[in-house]
Amino acid sequence: MRVINYVLFVASLSLIVACGDKKEEKKEDKSVKIGNTDNQKKSDSNTVSLGLTGNDLMQYDKSEFKVKAGQEVTLTLRHVGKMELLVMGHNFVLLKPGTNIQDFAVAAATIGKDADWIPDGGKDVIVHTKMIGGGQSTSITFTAPEAGEYDFVCSFPGHSALMKGKFIVE
């Protein structure tokens, strides 16, 4: 019995020594930080990024954009449908003031694929993206024109009646 008590005493003592009075080491975070978090890059108020999608139902997801005159605009057009370019192509065409949308659309349909559906060398166009098919995207960067209200359309044949909107420059 004395041996059992001795073994229990030694085991208890070993347990106390192993668990107790051990000082926990604290690790200091020595990560290096370069720069000041207050100096993070602020967004440039003279640039704006716009997103627009077109689908297989001949619809844009937006019918209006507002930007400031002289602002650098990056517009990204995504075709979220599945139909190919020659069946359901989409683009973004920003028209010059006074351009008749119906006349422009007829001329675009007539000029066709070889001119990317942009008639008369783009004489009525401020800027346009290339024509894209389902699953594709394209971007264009340009400087916003002077203050005013401009029309934008898709120039693929038959699309401008539904795929149009206002580009408002303040």
Structural class by secondary-structure content:
alpha/beta
Shape: globular
Whole-number average pLDDT?
85
What is the share of helical residues?
Answer: 10-25%
Number of domain units: 1
Widest sheet: strand ordering? 2-8-7-4-5
Q: Can you tell me the CATH class?
A: Mainly Beta
Beta-strand residue fraction: 25-35%
Number of strands: 8
Distance between the termini: 97 Å
Gyration radius, to the nearest Å?
33 Å
Q: List SSEs in N-to-C order.
A: HEEEHEHEEEE
The CATH homologous superfamily is called: Cupredoxins -  blue copper proteins
* Main beta sheet strand tally, sense and closure: 5 strands, mixed
Tally of contiguous helical segments: 3
Quote the CATH topology. Immunoglobulin-like
Second rung of CATH, namely the architecture: Sandwich
Which spans of ≥5 residues are poorly predicted at pLDDT below 50? 29-42
Overview of this structure, please?
This protein has a five-stranded mixed β-sheet with strand order 2-8-7-4-5, with no helix packed on it. It is α/β, with parallel strands linked by helices and 170 residues long. 19% of the residues lie in helices and 27% in strands. The chain has one domain: Cupredoxins -  blue copper proteins (Immunoglobulin-like), CATH 2.60.40.420. Residues 29-42 have low confidence and may be disordered. The termini are far apart. The chain is built from three helices and eight strands; from the N terminus they run αβββαβαββββ.
